[in-house]
Each structure stands twice: as C-alpha cells, then as structure tokens.
Amino acid sequence: MAREIDSKCSLCRRAGEKLFLKGERCLTSKCAMVRRPYPPGAHGQSRGKAPSEFGRQLAMKQKIKRTYGVLERQFRNHFREVESKEGVTGDMLLSRLEKRLDNVVYRLGLATSRAQARQLVSHGFFALNGKKTDIPSARISVGDVITLRLEKMEKKYLLGLKELRKNSQVKVPEWLVLDEKKWQGTMLSEPTRDHIEGDLNPQLVVEFYSK
To answer: Is the dihedral of CA 71, 72, 73, 75 positive or negative?
Structure first.
C-alpha cells in the first residue's frame, strides 16, 4: 500500500498549523507546532514573503490531501469523480473524502488518527455491512454499517479505546452514529460542508485544477 513517507510533524509545519496527523500527541506539548511553529528547513524561520495566488492554491491542495492522508494520484482521482457532477465541486470533494472508510473509522472515534484508522482497516479489523474489508478508500453510503471485528482485537487495544473515548473530547458528527455496546457505526446521512471542521477552502483546489 503506497503511503506518505515524510514526517507527519513536517507536514504540519509546512501547512503552518496542526493537521492532527499523530492523534493524541498533537494535543500535548510534544507537538512539533508547539515546539517549532515554523516551516522545516534551514530557512524555515526566515520565510516572510507572502505566497502568490498559485502558491495559496497549491498549499490548500496539499493541506487537504495531507489532512485526509491520500496521495496525489488518489486525490486527483477523487477530484475527477466529482468534477462533472452537479453541485459545488469543492464541497462535493470534501464530502467524497469524508466518506472514505478510514476517515469514517476516525470520525467514529475508533482510532486516534486517520493514519491509525487506515492501518486498522488494512489489517482487516473492520467489517462493512457484515463483510470483512481491508480497503481504506472504500466508499461508505447512507445506511452502511461499520463494525469493529472484536475477534481480531487485542484486549489491550479495546481497553485503550474505551479509555480514549472516556477521557477525550471525541464527538461523533451528526451524519454518523456509534453503538458503543456493539462497537458498530452507521452512516445516517451525507456529510455536508457544515459537518467538516477546520479551515479548509476547497474552492482553491478547484481553481488549482482548472488551470
């Protein structure tokens, strides 16, 4: 499975803000954006020139791509899927990314980060509508049920998961619902732009690919 090999902390520092790529670590003083809140590299602290319009578009594309943990070709394919459909292309792109199985697992609070969710899905720890799946990019539809395969899980992980949900501020978005007794999540409706937190401007991505 192809993956981003750059340091996750470096990706956040390039974006100039926390992308929460390392789960709980991002909420502690160990976070790189707390210790070194400037771009990586020898000249990171001296970069003061305002980016061009193209630079802003590129930076937003990279930010969204890295937030959801997809590679360039995958991201471009997601864009092409929604480009010809009726509606606001940028908002449909974010909705499409939200409906990836790895993101849904993360949104349900069953993983501390999208990277961990992607790894768990790849190892077959989840079932989609009763069938084991190991495809992180699988598209989830309204009514689909995602179940944690308890027979695959170690007791240590389950205890950690319960502790995480007990102590953290995990909030399952309105378009999903989680049954913690069954460790089972269901997609209730399509995710909309209002459901997606973060300073993301997908219109800049549309402008980038329209050149």
So the answer is: positive
What pTM was estimated for this model as a whole? Answer: 0.76
136/61 same-domain check: no
Same structural domain for residues 13 and 93? yes
* Exposure class string for 10-41: b at 16+ Cβ within 10 A, else e: ebbbbbeebbbbbbebbeeeebbbeeeeeebe
Q: Which domain holds residue 202?
A: 8-42+50-97+198-209
Residue bearing tokens 């495809």: 135
- Give 124-158 pLDDT, tens digit per residue: 999 999 999 999 999 999 999 999 987 766 666 77
Torsions phi, psi of 30, nearest 5?
A: -80, -10
Mean pLDDT over the full length of the chain:
82
The CATH number covering residue 66 comes to 1.10.1050.10
CB atoms within 10 A of CB 105: 24
